[in-house]
Amino acid sequence: MTEEAFDVMVVGSCMTDLVSQAPRLPKAGETIHGHKFFIGFGGKGANQCIQAARLGAKTAMVCKVGKDFFGDNYIRNFKDNGVHTDFVGQTSDAATGAASIIVNNAGENAIVIVAGANMLLGSGELQSALPAVSHAKVLVCQLEISPQTSLRALRMAQENKVKTIFNPAPAIPDLDPDFYRVSDVFCCNESEAELLTGSSVANVEEACRAGQELLKRGCGSVIITLGPQGCVVLKARESSPKHVPTAAVTAVDTTGAGDSFIGALAFYMARDPTMPLEEMARRANEVAGVSVQAVGTQVSYPFKRDLPAELF
Ligand SMILES: Nc1ncnc2c1ncn2[C@@H]1O[C@H](COP(=O)(O)OP(=O)(O)OP(=O)(O)O)[C@@H](O)[C@H]1O
Ligand SMILES: [K+]
């Protein structure tokens, strides 16, 4: 490759959020009036990639969108954020992934997700991205695309000694055990840890125990995020789990906080692989802590210029 290698590559999902705010959720067959509508950029893969890019990582997204307005618009969004789009495919066989969301005045919601084009991302696209993936510093995957595509991408990275971060979200109960073995860092939230271990994860102590269980399944390290409590970090060669607390902030909207954390983690892993994982997690807590202080998903993600210099 003549071009400089990517710091962070994400193989994952893109979704357009179509959000309507209404006094209440409609019943079957009913039409009601809402008071606000907006379109947001979402999808776990894209969110994570955009956060890494905003911190200054050289990023590329491997994903599939529809040959439609939302797909064109999403490609524009990647470009606006400095994300390379050479591996963003467009298909006429399915629509761009979309989440139709209705939020009522109590903050409750009803959501229909149509994964659409995301499910058509497969081995063809991975093969085209292989030369870039094999030279990247960090590869990140989640579960909003076909799990087999994620697993194949992670294997591809591992075979080429590229560091991997796997975020098993949204969680599936019958996760292929190979996912643990191909993860340098296995990073999930409390509910995912609960589903995967079958034990309650409601506090730091339980998270440490769940982390130990996940670690035994073969990953290099485990991070379990704990909302306002920060996260716990466990490393395969170290016996004791570490709690990494975070500063108290006034949270207004935690949507997308987990993705902000993972995008930041990927940035730090690519920039300085010798930095202790706890320190990367401490800094990722701080980045995600900024995202919860603003409404929305990607629009709430901080840029390097918004953050204290000590994080860089
Ligand atoms: N209330 C909060 N105060 C400070 N930091 C927070 C808060 N909520 C989340 N964070 C930060 O974001 C990280 C991820 O949050 P969380 O564990 O809630 O992930 P998540 O459940 O995947 O989030 P979401 O589903 O809302 O995107 C936390 O580890 C922490 O660093
Ligand atoms: K937010």
TrEMBL record:
<dbReference type="GO" id="GO:0006163">
    <property type="term" value="P:purine nucleotide metabolic process"/>
</dbReference>
<comment type="subunit">
    <text>Homodimer.</text>
</comment>
<keyword id="KW-0547">Nucleotide-binding</keyword>
<feature type="binding site">
    <location>
        <position position="246"/>
    </location>
    <ligand>
        <name>ATP</name>
    </ligand>
</feature>
<keyword id="KW-0418">Kinase</keyword>
<feature type="binding site">
    <location>
        <position position="144"/>
    </location>
    <ligand>
        <name>substrate</name>
    </ligand>
</feature>
<comment type="pathway">
    <text>Carbohydrate metabolism; D-ribose degradation; D-ribose 5-phosphate from beta-D-ribopyranose: step 2/2.</text>
</comment>
<feature type="binding site">
    <location>
        <begin position="15"/>
        <end position="17"/>
    </location>
    <ligand>
        <name>substrate</name>
    </ligand>
</feature>
<keyword id="KW-0119">Carbohydrate metabolism</keyword>
<feature type="binding site">
    <location>
        <begin position="43"/>
        <end position="47"/>
    </location>
    <ligand>
        <name>substrate</name>
    </ligand>
</feature>
<keyword id="KW-0808">Transferase</keyword>
<dbReference type="InterPro" id="IPR029056">
    <property type="entry name" value="Ribokinase-like"/>
</dbReference>
<feature type="binding site">
    <location>
        <position position="259"/>
    </location>
    <ligand>
        <name>substrate</name>
    </ligand>
</feature>
<feature type="binding site">
    <location>
        <position position="189"/>
    </location>
    <ligand>
        <name>ATP</name>
    </ligand>
</feature>
<dbReference type="GO" id="GO:0005634">
    <property type="term" value="C:nucleus"/>
</dbReference>
<keyword id="KW-0539">Nucleus</keyword>
<keyword id="KW-0963">Cytoplasm</keyword>
<feature type="binding site">
    <location>
        <position position="300"/>
    </location>
    <ligand>
        <name>K(+)</name>
    </ligand>
</feature>
<keyword id="KW-0479">Metal-binding</keyword>
<dbReference type="GO" id="GO:0005829">
    <property type="term" value="C:cytosol"/>
</dbReference>
<comment type="similarity">
    <text>Belongs to the carbohydrate kinase pfkB family.</text>
</comment>
<dbReference type="Pfam" id="PF00294">
    <property type="entry name" value="PfkB"/>
</dbReference>
<dbReference type="GO" id="GO:0006091">
    <property type="term" value="P:generation of precursor metabolites and energy"/>
</dbReference>
<feature type="binding site">
    <location>
        <position position="253"/>
    </location>
    <ligand>
        <name>K(+)</name>
    </ligand>
</feature>
<dbReference type="InterPro" id="IPR002173">
    <property type="entry name" value="Carboh/pur_kinase_PfkB_CS"/>
</dbReference>
<feature type="binding site">
    <location>
        <position position="291"/>
    </location>
    <ligand>
        <name>K(+)</name>
    </ligand>
</feature>
<protein>
    <recommendedName>
        <fullName>Ribokinase</fullName>
        <ecNumber>2.7.1.15</ecNumber>
    </recommendedName>
</protein>
<dbReference type="InterPro" id="IPR011877">
    <property type="entry name" value="Ribokinase"/>
</dbReference>
<feature type="binding site">
    <location>
        <position position="255"/>
    </location>
    <ligand>
        <name>K(+)</name>
    </ligand>
</feature>
<dbReference type="GO" id="GO:0004747">
    <property type="term" value="F:ribokinase activity"/>
</dbReference>
<dbReference type="GO" id="GO:0005524">
    <property type="term" value="F:ATP binding"/>
</dbReference>
<feature type="binding site">
    <location>
        <position position="294"/>
    </location>
    <ligand>
        <name>K(+)</name>
    </ligand>
</feature>
<dbReference type="GO" id="GO:0019303">
    <property type="term" value="P:D-ribose catabolic process"/>
</dbReference>
<keyword id="KW-0460">Magnesium</keyword>
<feature type="active site" description="Proton acceptor">
    <location>
        <position position="259"/>
    </location>
</feature>
<feature type="binding site">
    <location>
        <begin position="258"/>
        <end position="259"/>
    </location>
    <ligand>
        <name>ATP</name>
    </ligand>
</feature>
<comment type="similarity">
    <text>Belongs to the carbohydrate kinase PfkB family. Ribokinase subfamily.</text>
</comment>
<keyword id="KW-0630">Potassium</keyword>
<feature type="binding site">
    <location>
        <position position="296"/>
    </location>
    <ligand>
        <name>K(+)</name>
    </ligand>
</feature>
<feature type="binding site">
    <location>
        <begin position="225"/>
        <end position="230"/>
    </location>
    <ligand>
        <name>ATP</name>
    </ligand>
</feature>
<dbReference type="InterPro" id="IPR002139">
    <property type="entry name" value="Ribo/fructo_kinase"/>
</dbReference>
<feature type="domain" description="Carbohydrate kinase PfkB">
    <location>
        <begin position="7"/>
        <end position="302"/>
    </location>
</feature>
